[in-house]
Amino acid sequence: MTSSGQIKKDNAAPELESRALPEGYGTTEAALMPRDPNWMFIYWEITDNSKANLCRKHGADIFNKSRPVIRVYDVTGGDASKYFDIPVMLEAKSWYVNVQDSGRAYCCEVGLLQPDGTFIGLVKTNTVSLPAGRVSDVTDEKWMAVTADFDKLLQLSGVEYIGKGSGEVAKSLAQRWEMLRAVFSRASSWGVSSMSSQALQKTEQPKKFWLVADCEIILYGATEPDAFVTVSGRKVNLNPDGTFSMRFALPDGVMDLPVKAISKDETDSRAIDIKVTRATHTDAK
Amino acid sequence: MPNKEKGYLALVLHAHLPFIRHPEYEDFLEEDWYFEAMCETYLPLLDVYERLTAEGTDFRVTMSITPPLCNMMADSLLRERFRRYYSLRLELAEKEVVRNRNTQFYDVAKMYETKFRRIRELYEDYYHGNILEGFKKFQDMGKLEIITCGATHGFLPLELRKEAVHAQIKLAADDYRKHFGRGPRGIWLAECAYNPGDDVFLKAQGIRFFFLETHGIIYGSPRPRYGVYAPVYCPTGVAAFGRDMESAQQVWSAETGYPGDHRYREFYRDLGYDLEYDYVKPYLHQDGVRRNIGMKYCKITGKVGLNEKAPYNPAEAREIAASHAGNFMFNRERQIEHLNGFLGRKPMVVSMYDAELYGHWWYEGTDFLEFLFKKMHHDQKTVKMVTPSEYLAIHPDNQVVQPSMSTWGDKGYNEVWLNGTNDWMYRHMHKQVERMVEMANKFPSADGTLRRALNQCAREVVLGMSSDWAFLMTVGTAKSYSTKRFVSHTNRFNGLYEQIMGNRIEENFLKDIEWRDNIFPEINYRVFSTEEMERAQRS
Question: Which candidate, B155, B131, B154, places its Cα nearest to that of B144?
Answer without folding.
Answer: B131
